[in-house]
Amino acid sequence: MSVNEMAELLRRWGLAPPYVDSFVAEEYTIDSLKLLTAETILKHIPKEGPRSTFENNLKLLRESGDTLEGGEGEDEDDEDNTPLSSRRAKKRKLDNTQLQLILSLPDKNSLHKALKKSMPGIIVLGFYAANSFLDEYTRNLLCTQVIYKELENDFNRLLTRDDYSSIADDIVVLFPTEDKETWYSVVQKGKATTIQGRLRFKYYSLRRGLISSQLIKPTPVQTEINVDSSISELGDDLEDASFQWLCSNTAPWSEVLSKWGETR
Known about the structure:
Elements: H1 3-12, H2 17-25, H3 30-33, H4 38-44, H5 48-64, H6 84-104, H7 110-115, H8 119-131, H9 136-151, H10 161-174, H11 180-183, E1 185-189, E2 192-196, H12 198-212, H13 221-227, H14 241-248, H15 253-263
Antiparallel strand pairs: 1-2
Protein name: tRNA-2-methylthio-N(6)-dimethylallyladenosine synthase
Organism: Frankliniella fusca
Region (Disordered): 65-90
């Protein structure tokens, strides 16, 4: 493992640049970090606050047990002479190192914690770590995982505007290059307002799937208001006839698409 990989790991842990530079100056690698003593850590990070965070992350790193033995100093020209099984083993070690970096980061919020628990979530985190942005594929993965998380304890849960806004805020905290309005926005529609964004579209897409699978029953909007007053937070959307139709219908598909277009 290289010094640069070690420095990147420390930055992801949130360690301040002067402390990172201190470890770089001593040419530590990720493997040699695991050998640090309490005395050496104190030397490099004298302040208790950042030192506690560092020690917690170092503990997680040690418990992961992954190493990259023999990774440094190998001549790339010798790769053609390396047995295929050895090259595959080395590639697995590299993959495990990236996974280790992703999982060892402190949780920024509950969404971050949830994404670490699923393969799609780890793909999203890994892509962003490698590229500093999300593409269409990873946004779609993220949106699905987010709504799954919100509905995991109640498939029939009704998301409010406050819910959408809070989720969008969590996404931007975790992926700073994302625009909140991509995920949630409120726009004027005549004298009323309506919700737009990926979260709302994905929520109703999954809701229609749950209805089609008979996992939840379609319920008239007015009945839902009487059962759960929190839906009133949806505000002017409740006066949208197309919106109300979408809450309870999944077919015909041509009409679903038409009604969805009318709500945007």
